[in-house]
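Data card: per-record layout.
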Amino acid sequence: MLLQMSLDPDTRRKTGSIAGPARSRLTRRALTRGLAALPLALTGCASGDPGEGGRPWHHTADGFRNPPGSPERGGDFGDWTSFFLRRLGKGSPEVAVPDGHVLPVADVHAGLDGQNGADSLTWLGHASFLIRLDGRTVLTDPFLSDHASPVAPLGPTRFAPPALRPGELPPIDVILLSHNHYDHLDLATIEALPGKARIEVLVPLRLRGYFSERGYPSVRELDWHQQTVVRDLRVTALPAIHFSKRTLFDRNQTLWTGYAIESRRQRIYFAGDTAYGPVFGELAAGLDRFDLALLPIGAYEPRVLMRGSHTTPEEAVQIGRELRADRIVGMHWGSIVLTDEPPFEPPERFRSAAAAAGWRDEATWVMRIGETRSI
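The structure for this 375-residue chain is written out next.
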């Protein structure tokens, strides 16, 4: 698979305005990344041969697919029917939320303000984070409404509110979107976000329209391994093992992705939604280590159904280990019931797996919704 390391035209124009020393650092880093990733490019990206017609492996005639060697979701028609009937039968589940799991809004703002603009991470719930790097604020997978479905109140409903609603957020510089599922691409949230004219949006292939049609003037689509520079942050779209779907008729028509985010001092991995497979070990050969890895740890049972799209907590730890992350953060849990495991089982398994793999307690982050930590 062709490794797309060159910058897109928008990025080339933007890098022309970066100050000399910063531009030199970005140029040197880009060269280093390109050389480091060369072995991966030559081996065909995750050991896959090019697809039909010379397309990259993950491009098909009518959409996209996962990297070679990825797990396949299992289960027959009866298994899936039973699963969906359980979800419908529970409606909005009653979940005992531990004290302190969600911080009061005043404490959320205090935590943000207390950083005085320093690099920090704030968990808004599920896969939504505020990442502050070099004075820029990045918002990941903005899902800040109450329902993850096309028609509220049908479908999964939050048992724990987001830390902040759209109008309560600080000014956002960059939005990173991993894929089009309702608990990641929430149209109510992106419609309600203020300051659209100043926000730069990065999305996987074929997802530009959701944002441009709602008033965002700057939206860039990225393919796997494609890099861009946005507000002096270097962002690389990375493979994930998942799928896309918002209707009965559009499965895998749009791409799904994770991201590497790089500032002058930090390298952060945001996994989006993913299962575990050999692609992560292969990716590590072309990537520097990460200071922080944000990893999905929930929505994994029943395993036969979820193995092709979601990691277990133990598999999330394995991804962090293979990508050589200094610190790992659990996400995609504690907000909404999507699958069969107990809602507060994931962080316990995550901590245990991390300890067994050699991470210190202070390097394994299980955050409260609304908590801010310095990075």
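Known properties of this structure: The first helix runs from residue 9 to 15. The radius of gyration is 20 Å.

See the next section for split statistics.
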